Amino acid sequence: MTTEDPDDRALWSQAAGGGAHAFGVLFDRHAKAVYNHCFRLTASWAEAEDHLQATFLLAWRKRGDVRLERESALPWLLTVATNVVRNEQRSLTRRLKNLKRATHDQTVPDHADLVAERLDDQQRMRDLLDAVRKLPRNEREALALCVWAEVSYADAAAVFGITEGSVRARVSKAKSKLQQHHLVLVPAGEDR
Question: Of 2, 44, 86, 110, which has the most beta carbons under 10 Å away?
Answer without folding.
Answer: 44
